[in-house]
């Protein structure tokens, strides 16, 4: 379920590193500056408050070099829930500016109720995902039934909730195979913000505001390949076979 009144309480694990704390504070300051009904408010973890029945705890998670972890539960559960920041997940993001902030914003998007854009039921209209990724038990590439997605929004290749491919031969946009997917600047796309306002502020969906998409994913129904992996969409593009020894641990994250 969503967070009542759009207020998300959080607390901080005392074992978080300075780098992790800096990234968390950066993202929360950004989120609270947006024109939405959602606010992240810090609670005191050492005092009991009857009014705070659900909250997010940012915790330093002990992951491993071969299985780095940054993850979050989807939406609100009753009681305490966690956004896990793994030691190696954070460490491998140190060299790139805003990389950890970008990952945290993605995970906090999950906590606010946003799903992966590339798991939409109509995603095959827009992106190619190699069978290697689909068949490798990577659950975060599987399409999710349409009823779990809010209707009325176009596919957003710029969403913070869209994975950023590490190999464009395995995962790319149909219309432009070298176009960047997702984000790297630790900000929401225009449609990400619109979705939050739709979930929490009573704003109408994109399609309602633009008098289109009358039915569920009506904009996609014009394309016959949208709801299944046809041969055209499931075959690897021409060219050298991808090297599957690359690090694809990124795809294991929530």
Automatic annotation (TrEMBL):
<dbReference type="GO" id="GO:0004222">
    <property type="term" value="F:metalloendopeptidase activity"/>
</dbReference>
<feature type="binding site">
    <location>
        <position position="116"/>
    </location>
    <ligand>
        <name>Zn(2+)</name>
    </ligand>
</feature>
<dbReference type="GO" id="GO:0008270">
    <property type="term" value="F:zinc ion binding"/>
</dbReference>
<dbReference type="InterPro" id="IPR006026">
    <property type="entry name" value="Peptidase_Metallo"/>
</dbReference>
<dbReference type="Pfam" id="PF01400">
    <property type="entry name" value="Astacin"/>
</dbReference>
<keyword id="KW-0645">Protease</keyword>
<keyword id="KW-0479">Metal-binding</keyword>
<feature type="active site">
    <location>
        <position position="107"/>
    </location>
</feature>
<protein>
    <recommendedName>
        <fullName>Metalloendopeptidase</fullName>
        <ecNumber>3.4.24.-</ecNumber>
    </recommendedName>
</protein>
<feature type="binding site">
    <location>
        <position position="110"/>
    </location>
    <ligand>
        <name>Zn(2+)</name>
    </ligand>
</feature>
<feature type="binding site">
    <location>
        <position position="106"/>
    </location>
    <ligand>
        <name>Zn(2+)</name>
    </ligand>
</feature>
<keyword id="KW-0482">Metalloprotease</keyword>
<dbReference type="InterPro" id="IPR001506">
    <property type="entry name" value="Peptidase_M12A"/>
</dbReference>
<feature type="domain" description="Peptidase M12A">
    <location>
        <begin position="1"/>
        <end position="202"/>
    </location>
</feature>
<dbReference type="GO" id="GO:0006508">
    <property type="term" value="P:proteolysis"/>
</dbReference>
<keyword id="KW-0378">Hydrolase</keyword>
<dbReference type="InterPro" id="IPR024079">
    <property type="entry name" value="MetalloPept_cat_dom_sf"/>
</dbReference>
<keyword id="KW-0862">Zinc</keyword>
């Amino acid at each position: 379920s969503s967070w009542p009144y759009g207020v998300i309480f959080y607390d901080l694990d005392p074992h978080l590193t300075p780098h992790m704390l800096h990234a968390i504070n950066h993202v929360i300051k950004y989120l609270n500056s947006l024109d939405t009904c959602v606010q992240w408010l810090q609670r005191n973890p050492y005092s009991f408050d009857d009014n705070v029945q659900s909250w997010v705890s940012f915790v330093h998670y002990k992951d491993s070099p071969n299985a780095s972890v940054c993850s979050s539960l989807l939406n609100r559960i009753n009681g305490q829930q966690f956004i896990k920041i793994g030691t190696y997940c954070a460490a491998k993001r140190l060299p790139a500016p805003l990389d950890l902030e970008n990952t945290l914003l993605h995970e906090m998007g999950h906590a606010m109720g946003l799903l992966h854009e590339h798991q939409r039921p109509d995603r095959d209209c827009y992106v190619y995902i190699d069978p290697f990724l689909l068949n490798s038990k990577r659950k975060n590439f599987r399409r999710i039934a349409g009823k779990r997605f809010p209707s009325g929004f176009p596919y957003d290749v710029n969403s913070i909730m869209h994975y950023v491919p590490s190999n464009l031969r395995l995962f790319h946009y149909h219309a432009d195979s070298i176009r960047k997917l997702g984000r790297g600047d630790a900000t929401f796309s225009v449609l990400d913000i619109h979705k939050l306002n739709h979930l929490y502020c009573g704003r109408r969906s994109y399609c309602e505001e633009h008098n289109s998409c009358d039915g569920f994913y009506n904009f996609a129904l014009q394309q016959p390949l949208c709801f299944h992996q046809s041969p055209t969409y499931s075959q690897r593009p021409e060219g050298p076979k991808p090297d599957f020894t690359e690090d694809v641990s990124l795809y294991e994250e929530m």
